[in-house]
Amino acid sequence: MHELSIAQSLLAIIREEMQKHGSPRLISVKVRHGRLSAIVPDALAMSFEALTMDTALAGARLDTEEIPLVLACRACGTKFSPESSDYVFAPCPACGEELGHTVVSGKELYIEYLELDEAQGT
Amino acid sequence: MQIPVIRNILEANARVSDDLKRLFAEKGILALNLMSSPGAGKTTLLERTLTDLASEFSMAVIEGDLQTDNDAQRVAATGAQAVQINTEGGCHLTSAQVLAACKELNLDGLDILFIENVGNLVCPAEFDVGEDHKITLLSVTEGDDKPEKYPLMFNISSALLLNKTDLLPYVDFSLERASNFARGLNADIKVFPVSCRAREGLDAWYDWLRAARAAKKG
Asked: Mind telling me which InterPro entries this protein's record contains (chain B) (predicted)?
């Protein structure tokens, strides 16, 4: 379950950013993950909750959003999102090529924003 | 207040992975991250490779396992340097663990460093460990649809070894189907059908290793 390591890394960044902005409280964090990164949102939420329990971050909300897979056809360069879940053999809608497409997006894993309580004393 | 923070969640791992890449480049070491499910034959492949190429290359192994140092003992028996990392439940190696293990090794004069990842087709694919290439092993007893089910690992691997080909008469596994699934999102992946147990097909793998080593050395 890589979600636990990912939640640990996520929390390290959150703590750093909170310190940078002088905020005492995290309201929510938004994470975007590519379809190929195989993140299970429930598992990430569970890890996040387990790691923040009994800490200053307890109760913060974790929002996740999947980034769809976008491939570029090896043969004609057309960019497309495979409709079926069987995306390894996704035929190009323009020319029908099935193999060797390049992954344009779908491997991402990043924080988009943090929602923080107003900094105190500033 | 909402603060835009566009930061890669795995940036801490990526930073150490970049440090490792610089270290390996400085020392001229080819680093390979070996990934597969548990039981696909990574350790047996290493035993064969370390033995058969012992006269050509100086090689070392970092072994990642949840528990035990069984595998490190097996590869050390070939005469190669071996360090064990026990992840204590962690399902993949991180670059920090690999960096710590490197401190236990004598890297001077080393040609090839194998990093045997924890057996798992999902998590190791997410964490770079300073490698030049990712290598995936898939055994024919696991089913030829695995590249389709776990696309990321096959997408980012330079080579795929299809192991245990001596068992092909007894299982429903199509080498062609598995290769094609792997090539679905990775046109350049090199596929090597091998049987580490029966010592078949290994010469092609060794040639690939020699070429990768030569490319690294420049």
From this structure: CobW/HypB/UreG_nucleotide-bd, Hyd_mat_HypB, P-loop_NTPase
- Edge to edge, the sheet with strand B112-116 lists B81-86, B59-65, B112-116, B30-35, B133-139, B159-163, B190-193
Distance to chain A for B135, nearest Cα, Å: 18
Please name the amino acid found at residue A59: G
pTM beyond cutoff 0.80: yes
Q: Does A36 touch chain B (CB under 8 A)?
A: yes
The yes-or-no verdict on residue A73 having pLDDT over 90 is yes
A35 touches chain B (CB under 8 A): no
State the residue range of the domain holding A89: 69-104
Choosing among 2.40.440.10, 3.90.180.10, 3.40.50.300, 3.90.1150.10, the CATH entry for B2-217 is 3.40.50.300
Note the Cα B82 to chain centre separation in Å. Answer: 15
| Predicted-complex ipTM score | 0.87
